[in-house]
Design brief:
The protein is an all-alpha fold. The protein has 4 helices and no strands. The radius of gyration is 11 Å and the shape is globular.
């Protein structure tokens, strides 16, 4: 996939919103899109309680930790 420099932050923000709505898989999908479009500020995950809450779900924990490591 080509990186799209157009507003990758939008997908991060959507990930936060969907996480707040307890839609964990959708949040992960949007974090993946953010990354594909060039988002690099994954350190922001550590400061976002809604995304941290996803780590309580064993199926999502490893994905969140992968993004945190970027």
């Amino acid at each position: 996939k080509d990186k799209d420099p157009e507003f990758p932050e939008l997908y991060f923000n959507i990930a936060v919103l969907t996480a707040r709505e307890n839609k964990g898989s959708e949040a992960i999908d949007n974090l993946t899109l953010a990354s594909a479009k060039g988002f690099t500020q994954f350190f922001a995950i550590k400061g976002e309680p809604a995304l941290q809450k996803l780590k309580l779900d064993p199926a999502l924990k490893s994905k969140i930790e992968e993004f945190e490591a970027k």
